[in-house]
Amino acid sequence: MTGHTVGSQRPYRIAVFASGQGSNFQTLLDSSREGKLGAEIVLLVCNKPEAPVVERAHRAGVDCFLFEKKAYARREDYEAEIAQELERRGVDLIVLAGYMLLLTPVLVDAYQGRMINIHPSLLPSFPGKDAIGQAWEYGVKITGVTVHLVDGGMDTGPVIAQQAVEIAPEDTVESLEEKIHAAERDLYPQVVSWFATGKVRIDGRRITVG
Q1: The sheet that has 12-17: what strands, in order across it?
Q2: Of the residues 58, 119, 148, 181, which is catalytic?
Q3: Alpha carbon distance 36, 29 (integer Å)
Q4: Is there a catalytic annotation at residue 148?
Q5: 130-161 pLDDT, tens per residue?
Q6: In the chain, what is the greatest distance between 2 CA atoms, to the nearest angstrom?
Q7: What's the predicted TM-score (pTM) here?
């Protein structure tokens, strides 16, 4: 997979899809400003115009594509508009960061191998909603976070990277959530930087970095 390195004519461009508070969006933005990401955030896509992540984007001067699902007859309709925005900006990678809508082939197929998501468990364990709560209720001693390619399924795409988080005897659900979010802040910018510098190699479900 080809990335953009020092001396490229333009920076590697990413679009962040988010629906909520935008903590991972902020982490990526901060990493970009500090020169650690190797990429520029050129667009925020959000299906909740009143979400706090939108204000974060506005303050940072990041363009937004805002929409409400109910305004469209089909998911494919708003995704077609999103695809046009991505194409117009020359987006190299889609980064899902708490985007709460399922994606259709309109985007998944167009950005195959160029769309990533972060999930708060060690996949394939505890996919879907409330992964932290699932792990807590199951009683596992180690959980973590996973960054994976998006393939259209529910957290089923090939794994790019994982970071383990130990559940200590003194932990609560709240303290575990904080540990998971800290791991996300550490891992996600690192994985984006791998894409930006062309280090990711995809061979089916086998992904190597180097």
Answers
A1: 64-66, 39-46, 12-17, 93-96, 115-119, 142-149, 159-166
A2: 119
A3: 10
A4: no
A5: 999 999 999 999 999 999 999 988 899 999 99
A6: 52
A7: 0.93
